[in-house]
Design brief:
3 helices; single chain; about 240 residues
Length: about 240
């Protein structure tokens, strides 16, 4: 894999967070990873990401691509050589970009499925809906931007939520072969998030009773990131541990 570093602008990123029982989250993780707990809950969610000016770091911004992307993820930890490390396990990635789908897992880490997106956005409200082309996943989220984080049972305030997700900037995602976890890290000198409130959230991933029996996954909060310059650093792939 070539694995260049990538530059981009995060034009819009919704982190739609769910409180999940630890047992339900653990069942979805490969050996070697465990749920990262906050106040007794596992943290999972959907990252709905629009990237602009995405290109190798050596390329000028004018050649960059724009795309809508989605990732279903679980915050995780694992034992590293220097102690406990944190990140997110991404159960699947989907994109509206044919180029991202072709390049993911080949030129940069992270295999992507294809999805069709519908987006309605104002300064105060965002709705993102998507349907994957394999028919597996449908998502429809509407969130409004608020002046502070309210109603979350995971985080006491916006700063605590921001610090949690900034520390979990490494993403691990399985390859179709099932033999390794691709890895990539988000880097930015301009990290900034806004609080949001979920008006409605539907996901066939989280609403599937076989995956999450009733009461094991509950929408908790949403964070909004907009117009943030970011880099994406490939990391060495990890062999999939066997149980």
């Amino acid at each position: 894999m070539i694995q260049p570093r990538l530059s981009s602008v995060i034009e819009r990123r919704l982190l739609v967070n769910y409180r999940v029982t630890p047992d339900a989250a653990a069942r979805l993780l490969p050996a070697g990873l465990r749920p990262q707990l906050v106040r007794g809950h596992a943290v999972a969610g959907i990252c709905l990401l629009r990237l602009g000016s995405a290109r190798p770091t050596w390329a000028p911004p004018r050649v960059g691509l724009r795309s809508e992307n989605a990732a279903h993820r679980i915050s995780v930890e694992w034992d590293g050589p220097d102690g406990v490390e944190t990140g997110v396990y991404i159960t699947r990635r989907d994109t509206g970009s044919r180029i991202n789908s072709l390049a993911g897992g080949r030129i940069f880490p992270g295999e992507h499925g294809r999805a069709d997106f519908t987006v309605h956005e104002t300064p105060d409200e965002v709705r993102v809906a998507l349907a994957t082309r394999d028919g597996e996943i449908r998502v429809d989220v509407t969130a409004e931007v608020t002046d502070e984080l309210r109603g979350s049972e995971l985080f006491t305030d916006l700063q605590e939520a921001s610090d949690f997700f900034r520390a979990g900037a490494r993403g691990l995602s399985p390859t179709a072969s099932g033999r390794r976890l691709d890895a990539m890290e988000l880097e930015t000198d301009a990290w900034q998030v806004e609080a949001g409130r979920v008006r409605s959230a539907r996901s066939t991933f989280f609403d599937d009773p076989d995956r999450f029996p009733p009461g094991t996954a509950t929408p908790d909060s949403v964070l909004v990131m907009r117009d943030v310059a970011a880099r994406w650093r490939p990391l060495p792939a990890r062999a999939m541990a066997r149980c």
